[in-house]
Design goal:
- The chain has 374 residues and is an alpha/beta fold.
- It has one domain: TIM Barrel, CATH 3.20.20.70.
- The chain is built from 11 helices and 12 strands.
- Strands 3-4-5-8-9-10-11-12 form an 8-stranded parallel barrel, surrounded by 7 helices. The chain has a two-stranded antiparallel ribbon with strand order 1-2. The protein has a two-stranded parallel sheet with strand order 6-7.
- 51% of the residues are buried.
- It binds flavin mononucleotide.
């Protein structure tokens, strides 16, 4: 039997090397806030929550939005990496993810003017004064009526936040992460600088597109300068801001600049300038954001697709069509933490449960034989 007679291995389960890190497959757990941290520290919940996705053999297991400053959290329950004291708890999690064969990744975030609110489950209602903290943004315009009035960041304060991102990246390395993603989507701090709808500044951080991109690009440059050269750097953008301020042409222009600064993958989400991350600006149907990832990739920048990607054949088609390099799975992973293994089964590349943890797979293979005999 030669190779030509073997069924082609699905692209979804073909390993991929980015810089010096090899992903065992092209599935990624999308960042998903859980609101279960204490003073920024992840706990047993996060160990189990993230660990089970590694047991489920996702290629990359990414943390939820992790704040680079305490005031960059959305809620009191959001995790952080603004202090060295956060490192050991994350280290315990990354050690486990790596031991199971997945790649641990951290999403670095700053909520900006969308901070100091209750959970999405409580409609991100702003905290009362006794629970809130001062939030920051490009201007004093709130994210929507009734939300906190942000402090408009000065240029030196922006420089402090750039440093906070870089310090957070250094801590992420110390905590054992092998990839990081800069969160510049969904109307949080960096995204709020990109869109002219909320960035009406007239200094060097506002105005034309170059001015509005300056802060996110400074963050990228600072993070890349401390993040090890052999480790991948991702960047999440809202390809459309959902308010007709930032469009796909802007996203391509940004993606090309990011690539020049050493970003390896642009993760293409959309919307959220106001409201939640899942409040999309375009009709939602399976794969609704794939065209954004496809456009970025066609411009020569590797991309990740996300948004209502539900099963292995759908994910495989996105890769085969050349629309994205990686596939991020959000809610479908909450529904099925073994999504990646079920996708492999559906694509016919794991008939004997060999990709499963041996403690499960051996038994499942025996069960299959029993079922065949029965
Ligand atoms: C519970 C939950 C929490 C989320 N938290 C984040 C987050 O921390 N950072 C982020 O960039 N996106 C966040 N998102 C958006 C997801 O990463 C993803 O882009 C979105 O859910 C669409 O993908 P899906 O249809 O596969 O769920 C969150 C989504 C959900 C459902």
């Amino acid at each position: 039997m030669n190779d030509a007679s073997l069924p082609a291995r699905p692209l979804l389960f073909t390993p991929m090397t980015i810089r010096g890190i090899t992903l065992p497959n092209r599935t990624v757990v999308a960042p998903m806030v859980q609101y279960r941290a204490r003073d920024g520290h992840p706990g047993d919940f996060h160990f189990v929550h993230l660990g089970k996705f590694a047991l489920g053999r996702f290629g990359i297991v990414m943390t939820e939005a992790t704040a680079v400053e305490a005031r960059g959290r959305v809620t009191h329950g959001c995790p952080g990496i603004w202090s060295d004291e956060h490192i050991p708890a994350w280290r315990r999690i990354t050690d486990y993810i790596r031991a199971e064969g997945s790649v641990p990744a951290m999403q670095l975030a700053h909520a900006g003017r969308k901070g100091a609110t209750h959970r999405a489950q409580e409609n991100t209602r702003p905290y009362d004064a006794k629970d809130a903290w001062p939030v920051v943004g490009p201007t004093t315009e709130p994210t929507s009526a009734g939300h906190h009035i942000p402090h408009a960041l000065t240029a030196p304060e922006i420089a402090d936040i750039v440093r906070a991102f870089a310090d957070a990246a250094r801590r992420a390395e110390a905590a054992g992460f092998d990839a990081i993603e800069i969160h510049s989507a969904h109307g949080y701090l960096l995204a709020s600088f990109l869109s002219p709808i909320c960035n009406t500044r007239n200094d060097q951080y506002g105005g034309d597109r170059a001015g509005r991109m300056r802060f996110p690009l400074e963050v990228t440059r600072a993070v890349r300068s401390v993040w090890p050269m052999h480790k991948p750097l991702f960047f999440r953008v809202s390809a459309l801001d959902g308010a007709d301020g930032w469009n796909l042409d802007d996203t391509v222009a940004l993606a090309l600049e990011l690539k020049a600064l050493g970003v390896d993958v642009v993760d293409c989400s959309s919307g959220g300038l106001t409201g939640t991350a899942t409040a999309a600006p375009i009709p939602r149907h399976p794969g609704f954001q794939v065209p954004f990832a496809a456009t970025v990739r066609k411009a020569g920048v590797p991309s990740m697709a996300v948004g209502l990607i539900l099963d292995g054949p759908q994910a495989e088609k996105i890769l085969r069509d050349g629309d994205a390099d990686l596939i991020a799975i959000g809610r479908q992973a909450l529904y099925d933490p073994f999504w990646a293994l079920h996708a492999a089964e559906a694509l016919g590349c794991d008939p004997g449960f060999g990709m499963w943890p041996d403690e499960y797979g051996w038994w499942l293979a025996k069960r299959s034989q029993s079922l065949v005999r029965a």
